[in-house]
Prior knowledge:
Elements: E1 3-8, H1 16-23, E2 29-32, E3 41-45, E4 48-52, E5 65-68, E6 73-74, H2 76-88, H3 93-96, E7 97-100, E8 104-105, H4 108-121, H5 133-141, H6 155-174, H7 181-194, E9 198-200, H8 202-211, E10 216-219, H9 244-250, E11 257-265, E12 267-270, H10 283-291, E13 304-309, H11 310-320, E14 324-328, E15 338-347, E16 350-352, E17 363-371, H12 388-401, E18 405-409, E19 417-419
Parallel strand pairs: 1-10, 1-11, 2-5, 2-10, 5-7, 6-8, 7-9, 11-14, 13-15, 14-18
Antiparallel strand pairs: 3-4, 12-13, 15-16, 15-17, 18-19
Helix pairs in contact: 2-7, 4-5, 4-6
Residues 8, 12-18, 39-42, 44, 292-293, 297, 328-329, 331-332, 409-412 line the site of guanosine-5'-diphosphate.
Amino acid sequence: MKVDVLLGLQWGDEGKGKVVDVLTPHYDVVARFQGGPNAGHTLEFEGKKYVLRSIPSGIFQHGQINIIGNGVVLDPILFMEEAESLQQSGVDLKHVLKISKKAHLIMPTHRLLDAAYEKLKGDAKIGTTGKGIGPTYTDKVSRNGLRVGDIFCDFQQRYEMAKKRHVNLLKALSGEDVDVAETEAKWMQAIEYLKQYDIIDSEHVVNKYIAEGKKILCEGAQGSMLDVDFGSYPFVTSSNTVCAGACSGLGVAPGKIGEVYGIFKAYCTRVGSGPFPTELHDETGARIREIGHEYGAVTGRERRCGWIDLVALRYTIMLNGVTQLIMMKSDVLDGFKTVKVCNAYRVNGVETRDFPFDIEHGIEPIYEEMEGWNVDMTGITSPDQFPQQFKDYVAYLERELNVPITIISVGPDRMQTIDLRNNR
Ligand code: GDP
Ligand code: IMO
Ligand code: MG
């Protein structure tokens, strides 16, 4: 049995949470493999809306197992808040959620370090989510991190050592003494809370499931353009968001990867700083933002908006070995007379379809302009109801990207999803 992966192909917020929820009935297990509470995955069904941060998006269906993998960084306080709010909504989390012993813990001082590094960068700041993601992954790689499994042995001593190091670092960075006593007390409570959950050797469990023939869906966070190796560095997150991250973030051998679902919006958004070749600074960008409600699921920050970028998409499809494409938020473009698609860049005057090393300087997007469909698609339930102009748009994207689009989303609700796999 192969393990399928669903991941974002742009700069995050593509709609991963919604589609993971929609696909969950076809799986036995849903697993997060990287990122942490920097993610905000929105799900809507039966008139209710949920935003998930660290907990996988497979918890609302029919008792599937949900795993927080070793590649994830977990903030116990935010986890406790998220879990308690879900339990209050009637989700039986304790029986379905398992957490890897090897997931790294975000400490209160990691968040302070995140803020201190951002402040030092001044105008060149990344615009992080402020959740301590970078400093926690830094500690992991520099072999100084604390893991979930550590809470059962010598934990206090290890915590104090790590804290001392952070406090010294903070003093050196900002010249100030920090006092984390209050947050620390809450954090320790949250560590106790964590102990009620099934804390597992996730790589063994995942591979046992594979051997038993269970179907596993891996849920990516962020997007490939935020990958620490391939994204618009340094304006990226600190984990591997590409498909390879599912192998290292869960202990799945590369040969065990099956379908790779690459998810993208019919346009493009980005939150935080960093280059964005097709960004629209005009009324059209503002219009997309308003219609698409493009404000951060967690921070409420305005998302920058622009036209779809096929140069970037071809690049991320290549990196991930995408086998099926999922297009989201097509309905947001319903009222546009024409829609634009960037199919190439002019880099210092030379046209290219290849994604360049530097997308910040000398890049001019080259657009194809296509006729809009001018039909409200939010109520569409089958692909034969799609307007012809929209069908042409989809056919164009499939031709240019060379991968089939198999699911199209026409609204935020679970039901507003058209699965083309049985309909073509
Ligand atoms: P994620 O981080 O990839 O899970 O995406 P977010 O939840 O951060 O952002 C996606 C936003 O778009 C959420 O508010 C969703 O409810 C909403 N959404 C998802 N699919 C659609 C769609 O097809 N149409 C519209 N209009 N909204 C959608
Ligand atoms: P989901 O899973 C969109 C962005 C931040 C910032 C950069 C680094 O909901 O798609 P970090 O806090 O990770 O160090 O921030 O990455 N970022 C996201 N943007 N969606 C996300 O997650 C993001 N997670 C991080 O805005 O630019
Ligand atoms: Mg999001």
